Amino acid sequence: MLVCEGCGAVAPDLTNLPRDAVEVVESEAYLDLFARPDTATPFLRYAMICRPGDRAGAYLQAAWAADDAGDDEAARHYRREAAANWGEPDGIESALRLIDVLRRAGMLATAEECAGVVAGDMMDERAEAMLRYQRARIAEGDTGRHLMSSAVRPPARMPHVAHGKKLAPQPSKPGFLARLFGRDKG
Fold it and tell me: Are 46 and 65 contacting, i.e. CB atoms less than 8 angstroms apart?
């Protein structure tokens, strides 16, 4: 996020601010955020300035910053704000992300409802695995963070280029270390 040194506006692109950004930046609520020293503050300031379609992303970034700071309650709150500003998912990936946001916010019934709607859509194998994983976490009441690799196994590693090749013959003359430590017989 970029911060304007003059007015304090926060955005990923300061040249593309909404028309009413000046009013927001001068508002008491916006100025009050300057007194908050937490890592989510820039994202909260951006959420106040940005267009409605971008607010969910700003609140989600605030939640991630709160996660990193170990502030679980603030992270849950910001995820609830993200969910409230999400709008209709625009595809499977967006829907899966919303389900995760809802689950992490503790909104388990809403997350399961959303998962039930998504389950009928055409999904690839990866999306189906992620949805199954999310639904299992929801059923357990799990609101914690998880790695994507827990739901979808990463592809198998490609073997090293030397895999299966014979090793080159070792030189018959002793190497530098053998000569250095007196193991040189020649």
Answer: no
- DSSP letter (8 states) at residue 9: -
Q: Which residues of 119-148 are buried (b: 16+ CB within 10 A; e: fewer)?
A: eeeebeeebeebbebbbebbeeeebeeeee
| Euclidean distance between CA atoms 47 and 77, whole angstroms | 14
The per-residue pLDDT for 114 is 93
d(CA 106, CA 138): 9
pTM over 0.70: yes
Q: Pick the residue with more confidence: 87 or 163?
A: 87
- Per-residue confidence band for 67, with pLDDT thresholds at 50, 70 and 90: very high
Question: Residue 138: CB partners within 8 Å, gap ≥ 6?
Answer: 103, 108, 111, 112, 115
Kindly state the tokens that stand for 144: 């914690």
